[in-house]
């Protein structure tokens, strides 16, 4: 945060990518992510802070802590139609209610790197 917190070349600083709440008795990375975000927020300069989330519910946990940009990933849909349905069915109507924007920050047009994903045709 000291080095890049005021760097006008940056759109945002992602504090952590996809913290996990844990499952099957495992703690997950959520406590670490919450602590890291609070620390980053306390040292924040002019660059907005974000957090990569697999679910919008995860991002909502960080809003009260001062999350500047809600970011969530809709990775690996089964079909192009499924991706379009998820974008327009769940996101667009909500986004239109607020003075915010949305964008695709990355396009991964390559073979899935995990064998299980490849076997599903991704």
Question: What tags apply to this protein structure?
Answer:
single chain; 122 residues; alpha/beta; 3-stranded parallel beta sheet; 4 helices; globular
Written account of the structure:
The chain has 122 residues and is α/β, with parallel strands linked by helices. The protein has helices at 30-42, 56-62, 80-96, 115-119, and strands at residues 13-17, 49-53, 69-72. It has four helices and three strands. Helix 1 links the parallel strand 1 and strand 2 (49-53). The longest helix has 17 residues, at 80-96. The protein starts with 12 loop residues before the first strand and ends with a helix.
| Cα gyration radius (Å) | 16 Å
Strands ordered across the widest β-sheet: 1-2-3
* Helix share, percent: 25-40%
- Globally, the shape reads globular
Ranges where pLDDT stays below 50 over 5 or more residues in a row are: none
Mean pLDDT: 80
Number of helices: 4
Strand segment tally? 3
Q: What structural class results from the helix and strand content?
A: alpha/beta
Give the amount of beta strand, in percent. 5-15%
Biggest sheet character: 3 strands, parallel
SSE run: EHEHEHH
Q: How many angstroms does the end-to-end distance come to?
A: 36 Å
Give a short summary of the structure.
With 122 residues, the chain is of the alpha/beta class. It is built from four helices and three strands, in the order βαβαβαα.
């Amino acid at each position: 945060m000291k080095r890049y917190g005021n760097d006008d070349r940056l759109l945002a600083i992602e504090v952590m990518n996809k913290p996990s709440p844990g499952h099957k008795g495992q703690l997950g990375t959520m406590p670490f992510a919450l602590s890291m975000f609070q620390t980053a927020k306390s040292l924040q300069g002019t660059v907005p802070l974000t957090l990569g989330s697999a679910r919008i519910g995860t991002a909502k946990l960080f809003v009260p802590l001062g999350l500047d940009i809600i970011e969530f990933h809709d990775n690996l849909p089964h079909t192009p139609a499924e991706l379009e349905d998820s974008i327009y069915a769940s996101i667009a109507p909500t986004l239109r209610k607020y003075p915010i924007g949305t964008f695709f920050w990355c396009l991964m047009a390559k073979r899935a790197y995990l064998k299980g994903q490849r076997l599903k045709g991704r």
